[in-house]
Amino acid sequence: MYAQVNKHTLSGIIRESGSGETLPGVSIYCDSLRIGVQSNAYGFYSLTLPEGKHRIKISALGFSAIDSVITFSQNLRVDFNVGQGIALKEVVINAEVKKRISEESQMSVINIPVQQIKDIPALMGEKDVLKVIQLMPGVQKGSEGSSGIYVRGGGPDQNLIILDDANVYNAYHLFGFFSLFNGDALKSVELVKGGFPASYGGRLSSVINMQMKEGNQEEFHGEAGIGLISSRLVLEGPLKKKKSSFLISARRTYIDALIYPFLPPEQKGGYFFYDLNAKLNYTLTYKDRLYLSGYFGKDKFYFNSNNDGFKLKGNLNWGNATGTLRWNHIYSGKLFSNTSAIFTNYQLGIGSREEFDSSYFDLQFGSAIRDYTIKHDFDFYPNRKHHIRFGGLAIFHRFKPSAVVVKSSDALSAGISVNSIYTMESGLYVEDDWKISGRLKANIGLRVSHYVANKTSFTNPEPRVSARYSITEKSAVKASYALMNQYLHLLSSTGVSLPTDLWVPATRNLRPMQSQQWALGWAQELPKGINLTIEGYYKNMRDISFYKEGASFLLIDNPEGAQGINWEKNITQGKGWSYGSEFLLQKEKGKWSGWIGYTLSWTYVQFDSINFGKKFFPRYDRRHDISIVNIYKFNDRIKLSCTWVYGTGNAITLPVAQYDAAPHNPAQIDNYSQYNFIGFRNDYGEKNSFRMAPYHRLDVGIQFTKVKKRYTRTFELSFYNAYNRWNPFFYYIERGVTATQNKLMQVTLFPILPSVSWSWKF
Fold first, then answer.
1. Domain presence at residue 656
2. How far apart are CA 352 and CA 371, in angstroms?
């Protein structure tokens, strides 16, 4: 007969000492039983142990490890403060211990330290989260300087971008050259490329999940910065010490103010964008906490001209607004919940006005998408072998694809619009992170998604599984499978993420997209805190959308005929395949940090009505992609960083031959010459059969930091494209008198660009 051993639950919240910020992804490990868990997105952990004395180790990237001996005979809540603080008389060991990738069942997941994002040199000195994500294997860059991302063969519309639980539809400023996420306001950034947990849905290719800082609960702090094109300010502090806090982060460009004095009086114009992040949190009780956060941003381009009484005014503006109200509740030491109410709004507006004497002509175009979301998630820890997550969400979409209003002094007044479209997207999920044995751990989940639009509905089960098998204590084999459905489409006529791209819903005639992805990989922990991951993947996609040649969605070119336009008929759907391998050698901390990433991949798409039904490479298929990132800290005052990237050129369509199309009948020549300067026609061959020149560049930055009595000052000097590589942005044909005299000309966007910035922390 065996004596029964009573088991109890140790649970609590992990916070950062000195600020009170909750910390996700912290490892809580029982040394004697060789079991552990990680804190969830809100810092909550739960570990079931036999009663008695246990040594508990707390480790988080960038913080000193905590080694604590705890004795308990009943369920116990212990909140740990990591960093400089000490909780419950723990013994602090001055050694940094990081999360072990060989122990995780998830694969194709990369957590990017926010400090590394701030250290990497960037275009015009603007620190950009999405540009850093572009440096990861499996993530292809778009055109020169842009923040668009293409993950494992997917398009920019196939990335689920989340900021504090709110979906962001257009994540770009300055026509795609910068993202709207201010790194000063972020706490964590996670990229998921495959093996998707069942808690995520609605996109095919990736999840970029960002959490904003909560604000310091102990002291008031701030950070300010001045750069070449923008300035920023962050303020945070307690509203009620150890009870509530706030965070406000703002950024604005001043390009318009810099160029305005140099413009002639009769022609004025400008461009600016701004961001505002705000967050409040309040601890209601021992078990309840409220968060209220929001993002507000806008881009505006405008011009005014006045020539001899003819006045022309125009503007292009777009912006995002999000709001999230969250409630954290701890039901018990084993059950945690988060409930979110979320608002998202994206709007685009284009306007022009012409005036001459007493006459005028007005044209206004608008497009918008608005979401109302309710989301409820649970974390359940029944015992030390299982971590179960379950929950669901419902999203009410309102799409307004396009609307045109025309007014003039000639009594012309017309309002033309594509009717608003209302849809509902919902999902239920459950997943279990199950430690099956000492070597085998798996995350097994199922998501069921449902979508309704105008009496059309789709219900799709989405199975997910990822697993790891430990070969040794520091190495493991991993595998995953995920089926994903996407009920939104992005209409784009350029292949570049622009604010004029329009989001539209799936309908009876425009089916939702679906993908299946398989991945197999190896994870190895090397000495000195270096991690190595090697992964291979295969993904197929169906019902992906592509615009038809000559399609127009703006309804501006011919507003009078817009009522007859059916955007569903301007889209064709087809199939896609992507496969490849990825290599990542990464060191996240220490005097030297950074990574080396390499991707070898192939992507094909096929549409019956394009390229004669033959499959072809999409524009951003890239055979080879290399990123080398190095950050070296000489001492507390000087830090050097450099990034080198290389990528196979984009696939584009160019003429492969010309033929004489002029008529040879003398009676037709005069009539023909009225419309054709040269009698040649282009033969383009197969679509995207030409490769642009390879893309590569070197970015270098150096930071000088000086600690003063009341603040810390940092000066940064950086060089984008340091060796002045003339990378192609696009090509065009310069016509000669004969076809043999034609020249292929290249346009380069960014030469070497130096930048400087100053920042202060106080």
1. no
2. 29
Give me 604's structure tokens: 């094909």
Q: Say yes or no: 113 and 95 in one domain.
A: no
- Kindly report, residue by residue over 664-711, the tens digit of the pLDDT: 555 555 554 444 445 566 777 788 888 999 999 999 999 999 998 888
CATH number (domain holding residue 84)? 2.60.40.1120
Give per-residue pLDDT as tens, 128-169: 888 889 999 999 887 776 777 899 999 888 999 999 999 998
Q: Are residues 68 and 91 in the same domain?
A: yes
Q: Which two tokens stand for residue 477?
A: 């084999």
Question: Which of 211, 242, 261 is the last residue before a domain boundary?
Answer: 211
Residue 256: DSSP 8-state: H
Residue 168 DSSP SS3: coil
DSSP string, 655-724: --EEEE-S--SHHHHHHHHTT-SS-EEEE--STT-EEPPPEEEEEEEEEEEEE-SS-EEEEEEEEETTT-
89 and 21 in one domain?
yes
Task: Determine, yes or no, domain membership for 78.
Answer: yes
Query: CB–CB of 8/72 below 8 Å?
Result: yes
**Separation of CA 138 from chain center:** 14
What is the span of the domain harbouring residue 43?
A: 7-99
Residue that finishes a domain, picked among 211, 227, 262: 211
Q: In angstroms, rounded to a whole number, what is the distance separating the alpha carbons of residues 714 and 718? A: 13
Q: Does residue 180 form part of some domain?
A: yes
Q: 115 and 89 in one domain?
A: no
Cβ atoms 138, 599 nearer than 8 A: yes
With left for phi above 0 and alpha for psi between -120 and 50, is residue 409 left, alpha or beta? alpha
Q: Within this chain, do residues 131 and 67 fall inside the same structural domain, yes or no?
A: no
CATH of the domain at 170: 2.170.130.10
Instruction: Return the C-alpha torsion angle 101, 103, 107, 111, nearest 10.
Output: -40
Q: 3-state DSSP call for residue 139?
A: strand
Q: How many domains, in total, are found in the chain?
A: 2
Residues whose CB falls within 8 Å of the CB of residue 146, separated by 6 or more in sequence, listed in order: 172, 176, 177, 496, 497
Q: What are the pLDDT digits (tens) for 46-87?
A: 988 888 888 888 887 777 778 888 887 888 888 888 875 333
Q: How many CA atoms lie within 13 A of 37 on its CB side?
A: 29
Angstrom distance (rounded) from CA 542 to CA 577: 9
Q: Is the residue at 489 inside a domain?
A: no
